[in-house]
Every structure is written in C-alpha cells, then in structure tokens.
Design goal:
The protein is of the alpha+beta class and 332 residues long. It folds into 3 domains: 2-71, no CATH class; 83-193, no CATH class; 204-331, L,D-transpeptidase catalytic domain-like, CATH 2.40.440.10. The protein has helices at 2-6, 17-32, 60-67, 71-82, 104-110, 126-140, 162-177, 314-321; strands at 12-13, 40-43, 46-49, 52-57, 87-93, 96-102, 111-113, 122-124, 142-148, 151-160, 184-186, 191-193, 204-209, 214-219, 222-230, 240-243, 252-253, 258-259, 264-269, 274-280, 283-285, 291-293, 308-310, 327-331. Helix 2 (17-32) crosses helix 3 (60-67) and helix 2 (17-32) crosses helix 4 (71-82). The longest helix has 16 residues, at 17-32. The radius of gyration is 29 Å and the shape is elongated. 27% of the residues are buried.
Length: 332
Amino acid sequence: MIENRYSNLGIALFGGLIFAAFGFFTLLNQTLIGTVAQSIKVKGDVVLANEFPVYIIHDAPACVQNYTSTKQTFAMQAINKAISKPITLEYSEKDIDLKLGLTPQALHDILIPSAKDSNVPFILDKGAFASLVKPIKEKLDKTTKLEINGKVKTVPDRELSLDSLEFKLMLALINRLNGKDIKSINMNSSLIELPSTNGELADKYIEVDKSQQRLYAWENGRVVKNFVISTGLSGPTYSGMFRIKNHIKNPWSSVANVWTPYWMAFTYNSDAGAWLGFHELPYWDGPNGEKIRRPFDTLGKPVTGGCIQLDIGDAKNLYDWAEDGMLVFVHE
C-alpha cells in the first residue's frame, strides 16, 4: 500500500546502488531547502526525513546507518558536480563591461568539503575567493578626494561587496546541484555605494552625495536613513556645509511655479534670487484641480533647478526627522 502511494516518485533503488543514491539525494534535497534533515528514519519501505516521505527503497536501514559516516564523500561528489563547468562573473554599466571567468579548477580551489556534521555539502574558502576576484574588485572599487573641515581626505565611494558575491556564487552552485545550468553571475547589485563620511561631523546631520544622487541621514555615528534623490541640472546644487533654515509643509515656488511639499531650505542662490531646499517631488495644479506631479523616473539623476528632491514618503520621513539648524553636508 505504501509502495503504491509513492510509486509516482519514480525512484526505486536496489542492492549496492541504494547506499550512494540515498545519501547523495538526501544531502542534495535537504541542502536546497536550507537544512539537512534532523531526523532520518524508515517506516516500512519509506524513508522519512523530518517526517517527510523521501522515497521507497529496499534495505533502507543499512542506508540510514551509513549515511552520516559517508557524508564527506557525498560532499566531494557535490563539489565535482557543481564545478563541472566554468562560471563567469559579469558587470555592465554604460561603457563598462567587465568579465571574470572562474574555471572548474579555480572553483575547485575555493571550495572545501564540509565536515561530517555540517548542514551544507561544501563551504567557501573566503580568503581564496577574495584573492581570486581581487583583479575585478580593484577595478570596481572607487574612492574620491573630499575636503572636510579644511582637510582633504581620500574616502570610499563604492565597493564590490564580497559577502554579496559569495552568496550569489554559493546559490549558483547549489542551483547546479538542482539541475539548473547556471553559466554566469551578474555583479551589478553587489556593487555597494558608500557614504563619504563616517558620522564624525555631528550627532545628527545630512550628507548629500551628488555623484551618487543619494542622501544619507546620520545619527549617533550610523546611517539611519538612505534615500535616492535628484540634485540640480538647470541650476547648481552648491557643495559645502549648510544648515537647515526652516520647515514649511507645502510652500509655493514662484520661481518654478510648483508646489514643493515638505520643504526645508538650506542655502540661498543669489543669482537666481531663490532659496534652495529639500522637498518632495513637486507638483502643479491641473485645469480641473488635479495634481500633476513631476515624474518618478526623474529621481536618481540631476533634474532640478538646484533643490534636492525626494520621493513621496521619503521627503516627509526626512522632514519629520530633521531639525532646524541641523548640519547639511553636500559634496560631489
């Protein structure tokens, strides 16, 4: 009755093949869902992993008895399957197109068989991996020179996150064990933009990075808010140290003829005869009284007359957090 119930799984193991297939299948199956079964037992002719029926076998007790002691052998089998083909690390942005091919031998050199009591078939040698990707990391990591309080410092601007890349590689290898043909890994999302200060300017302050089109809100030495913004295109967003002058819920800009919700002024443009400030995506009134708002896709690139615009929700978040007199540091 049990055999008929599970025969649609199509797995029947016999004789000496039972042992190897059971261990490898169980390791593979449980690794892919995140944990190795804590309980492996046999009920009749059915193997149960954490009370879940895996498949029907003959001579099951012998398989279960030898499973743990041979786990490292299965780890080697898993590694051999995972590294059977090369994997290419790729990064593409505008005119930049970088690739780093990881050969089967290179993959072999950075993978270590797990210990017998581990939850995964293999682990990554972090030091070896860092050395392997060092050439491409050096090309993608970026620093910038910044003047802070009269001193010029070289500070980080972005870096390739090895933790993120390691995760992607391990996921790709596990997917290979699941039968997927993974040929490449995109590194774009592993490139992390960084603030240029480290929280040293004040207990609370705002850092605006024009090169990143990003705002960092600092409090007690850590970034507590991180927003995509837009700075000046038709007029400049000045670099330097400023202070928030005021909070106005939704003033009208007679210069741009738009409403600017959650306004906070921080400096004055004497050439334009106008204050520059933080505000939400501006809008104007349509012929029927409807709000016509500046498009959302203008965020993340210079587009304003010198103000710093934020997304809906982000502007209010910053408005509620910031205080009049708070330091604002704007840099390239």
